[in-house]
TrEMBL record, chain A:
InterPro entries: ABC_transp_permease (IPR001851). This is Ribose ABC transporter permease. It is found in: Cell membrane. Keywords: Cell membrane, Membrane, Transmembrane, Transmembrane helix. The keyword Translocase does not apply.
């Protein structure tokens, strides 16, 4: 951590810079002793922070390749990993926005299920399957908007609101299919989950992965290059100051929860496209936890205001690599859970330790 | 205290205890990330003495005190002696064992526990078997509370006490732990003047009891009143000591900044009183009488209007009504003669009213964000391309320009605001407001927690802004500042404007005239 204390070395160079009524323009060029860090150090540090968990990801990949009979780093397997990571990546992108404002969205798994159910139902309408995807996204957006409204304008705690909708929306998803699996062998948008973009003969990038990358890129643009993005960081960093700076704080909160819902709807499109089916009870179970884990692994602060979408991408990849790699190693399902959980805690602990060390030395 | 080095009966504040200092630090250096924060610093404090430790922000006071408290470890080569015996402080525990207690600005109490529980925090008395013995804790800390004249009992819940009373709990905890060296880090920052008086009486009482007190403060008046000796740090080095008789503002300031401050206050602007143009007119503005009774006043173009009064008089609350941060229930606001409604901060900023909060860390700055981002926050929407995309080039330019014109001392606009000193943080916040191009600028305690050098620069900036024609309202609890920079001063008491000094035909702007109104006496 950067020390916030004001009495840490400033060495203000009084001669050059603090003349009361002299030397007006000299300041910017004056040699600064040590107030904070140099511009280059700052850039380096923020790059390092964004990279954060990248070494862990690379080590895991190499480790699984070496101990998994050299089957991990193959084109086919990486394509599977990318598909496995993609849905979590989309959910985690929405979660990043929410957590950056200091909130949490526990309902994304349930929203994913409900919107996938909606998509399957709409795909079976007699007018054709063209409405399936819009319906799916709309369901996600509306439920996310309801979460946002209760949090932003009802001033209810995000944890409570989304915990409630985690349960209620799960029930809604089951209700929509009368607690049965809905199946459509002629699903109009199944290509999303099963095809890929052929870049040259024999090599195709799965559409799921392309969607995930697109979501990450758009998220990066919004967070780092738009007014909205700066305001999201501001609201997460200091809500009281944000309000006094003229930022419409409730509107920002409304946006992030709606976006999280919308992206959960997109997750619904993606997972139902893979399965040609949706089940209100099983689909998306505990996806919210994987999404939160990806954001945390990515170094985004749980209190808001600090974090990056690249970190989230790496976090989601770590989770997918772990699942895939442990299967390759033949680790049993039960042990996969235990190992995944411990790796998440360990990786974050390592990161905290590393950052503290960085500040000290 | 039972084992002090001073004979309490013969204590003479004019001639503080000779002999061995209760605490002595010698040759203390501290290096952070290759930067020398402290260089061969020395410090002595005797039992029965109040030693004021002074220095600009960044001079190394806090670092030095953190070494004393065990939060930091000094570089090898320094020495810390208690009653002449060298000791090693390698953590908070060993500092406490050595009888050192530090009371920080941010109090470290658990608000949900009682006074007794807080005093015994980490050292609870329990029955055999681990059941906590509240009664024993309460009875045995009662004498300390009595000695301090605490107006609360050991069972009071700390969260229900005022800041001043909580401070007393901290002091009680220190004394109860047999501390003989007490460090107070800017203890009066959050206190009213009455509470400050009470604290001073307490500190003097502790002096007569033989405790060595290290008192850190920026306020000259407090140092005059309390200090038997002043030790000054500058840029991480020892700058000198002043004995009781040599303590004066000029000498201290010279030691702190290493040069003379020829003109501390700047007042070169000259509001046009012949052709007045009222920028802001407030008429009967009130929140229904809860904190602010109907208030009416106006500010001329290029005028610096002071708003004085005791803490709690309703000055900040009035400012927040004008800015729309709180909702007014009555009254009108006119800008350039046109009645306007201000429904919230966003609208106020749009109309050209900017407000600098008194609490920049909690209500003003985004400490984790860069200086540049903080400066641009108010104008990014205005600058945006296509109403949405950030104009990064423009933002960088604005930040660089603001750094230059306000003389911000930081490595670059990319560093986080949280890493800057108080004065530079204040300049960043001020820069954000100025970027929005305000017609009316409300500055609430603009130099609070700002070191002497930066204070003077802020006065110069205020003066320059007034010369550009901005109407400025300065809320301040520091009367010399109000007197030094304002053209006219309004005085508030109990939510109402009760007096006005200065201006054409008004009383002279003096501290006496202002205080007379503030305290409710007729001016002589």
């Amino acid at each position: 951590m950067q020390p916030i204390d004001s009495d840490v070395p400033t060495k203000a160079v009084p001669t050059a810079a603090s003349g009361v009524s002299t030397s007006s323009a000299a300041t910017a060029e004056a040699p600064f002793g040590g107030a904070g860090l140099s511009a280059r150090q700052v850039r380096l540090r923020s790059t390092l922070q964004a990279a954060g968990m990248l070494p862990v990801l690379i080590l895991l990949a190499i480790g699984f390749h070496l101990f998994g009979g050299h089957r991990f780093l193959t084109g086919q397997n990486l394509s599977i990993v990318a598909q496995q990571a993609s849905i979590n990546c989309v959910l985690a992108a929405g979660m990043t926005f929410v957590i950056l404002t200091g909130g949490i969205d526990l309902s994304v798994g349930s929203i994913l299920a409900a919107s996938a159910m909606g998509a399957l139902i709409a795909s079976l309408w007699s007018i054709g399957g063209g409405f399936a995807v819009p319906v799916c996204l709309l369901i996600g957006l509306v439920i996310g908007g309801l979460n946002g409204g209760l949090i932003a304008y009802g001033k209810l705690p995000p944890f409570i609101v989304t915990l409630g909708s985690l349960t209620a929306v799960r029930g809604l998803a089951r209700l929509m299919g009368a607690d049965n699996t809905i199946f459509n062998p002629n699903l109009s948008y199944a290509w999303i989950g099963n095809d890929g973009l052929t870049i040259f003969p024999g090599v195709a990038i799965p559409w799921l992965a392309i969607i995930a990358v697109a979501v990450i890129l758009v998220s990066w643009y919004v967070l780092k290059r738009t007014v909205l993005g700066v305001r999201i960081y501001a609201v997460g960093g200091n809500p009281a100051a944000a309000r006094l700076s003229g930022i419409n704080v409730p509107l920002i909160l409304m946006f992030v929860y709606s976006l999280s819902g919308l992206l959960a709807g997109l997750g619904g499109v993606m997972s139902s496209a893979r399965l040609y089916a949706a089940n209100g009870l099983q689909l998306g179970q505990s996806y919210e936890l994987d999404a939160i884990a990806a954001v945390i692994l990515g170094g985004t602060s749980f209190v808001g205001g600090i974090g990056s979408i690249w970190g989230t991408l790496i976090g989601a990849l770590i989770i997918a690599v772990l699942s895939n790699g442990l299967i390759l190693l033949g680790v049993s399902d039960i042990w996969q859970f235990i190992v995944k959980g411990l790796v998440i805690i360990g990786a974050v602990a390592l990161d905290r330790f590393r950052q503290q060390g960085g500040a000290r030395t | 205290m039972d084992n002090t080095t001073v004979d309490q009966g013969n204590y003479d504040p004019a001639n503080p205890a000779p002999g061995v200092p209760a605490i002595e630090m010698r040759g203390i250096s501290k290096t952070f990330t290759g930067v020398k924060a402290l260089r061969d610093v020395r410090l002595k404090a005797w039992g029965g003495e109040i030693m004021a430790l002074m220095g600009e922000n960044g001079a190394g006071k806090s670092t030095l005190m953190k070494i004393l408290s065990g939060a930091h470890r000094a570089d090898a080569g320094g020495e810390i002696l208690i009653d002449g015996n060298p000791i090693v402080i390698d953590g908070p525990q060993s500092a406490r064992r050595a009888g050192i207690a530090i009371i920080y600005q941010e109090l470290a109490l658990a608000p949900n526990l009682t006074v007794a529980e807080n005093i015994y925090l980490g050292d609870e008395i329990s029955h055999a078997g681990g059941r906590i013995d509240r009664r024993a804790m309460e009875t045995s800390c009662a004498p300390v509370l009595e000695r301090l004249g605490a107006p609360f009992g050991p069972r009071a819940l700390v969260g229900t006490l005022s800041i001043a009373e909580q401070q007393m709990v901290e002091i009680a905890r220190a004394l109860h732990g047999k501390s003989r060296i007490l460090v107070l880090d800017e203890p009066t920052t959050a206190l009213s003047s009455r509470e400050t008086d009470r604290l001073f009486r307490l500190v003097k009482q502790l002096r007569t009891e033989g405790i060595a007190i290290i008192y850190i403060s920026h306020r000259m008046a407090e140092v005059y009143e309390l200090a038997d000796r002043v030790t000054v740090l500058r840029d991480g080095s020892y700058a000198g000591d002043l004995g009781k008789r040599d303590i004066n503002a000029e000498a201290i300031v010279r030691m702190m900044v290493g040069r003379d401050l020829s003109s501390f206050y700047t007042k070169e602007h000259d509001p046009d009183v012949v052709h007045p143009h009222l920028v802001l007119e407030v008429d009967g503005l009130t929140d229904g009488g809860r904190r602010v009774k109907p208030c009416s006043f106006s500010i001329n173009r290029g005028e610096v209007l002071g708003l004085a009064g005791l803490v709690g008089a309703g000055r900040t609350e009035l400012a927040r009504l004008i800015f729309g941060a709180d909702r007014a229930t009555g009254g009108t606001i006119r800008l350039d003669g046109v009645p306007v409604t201000v429904s919230g901060p966003a609208e106020a900023l749009e109309r050209g009213i900017a407000y600098l909060t008194e609490d920049r860390k909690a209500l003003g700055l985004f400490l984790d964000m860069s200086c540049g981002a903080n400066i641009n926050l108010g104008v990014i929407a205005r600058d945006a391309k296509g109403g949405m995309a950030l104009d990064l080039k423009r933002a960088a330019q604005r930040a660089t320009d603001a750094f230059r014109s306000l003389r911000v001392r930081a490595a670059s606009p990319l560093v986080t605001v949280g890493s800057l000193s108080g004065g530079n943080q204040q300049k960043i916040l001020l820069a954000r407001l100025l970027e929005t191009g305000p017609k009316v600028l409300i500055l609430d305690e603009p130099t609070r927690g700002v070191d002497v050098g930066a204070k003077s620069e802020i006065y110069r900036i205020i003066d320059e802004l007034a010369r550009k024609g901005i109407a400025i309202l300065v809320i301040s609890s520091e009367l010399p500042e109000i007197v030094g920079i304002c053209d006219r001063v309004l005085v508030m008491r109990e939510g109402a404007i009760v007096g006005s000094v200065g201006g054409a035909g008004g009383e002279a702007i003096t501290q006496q005239n202002i205080m007379a109104h503030a305290a409710g006496m007729e001016a002589a």
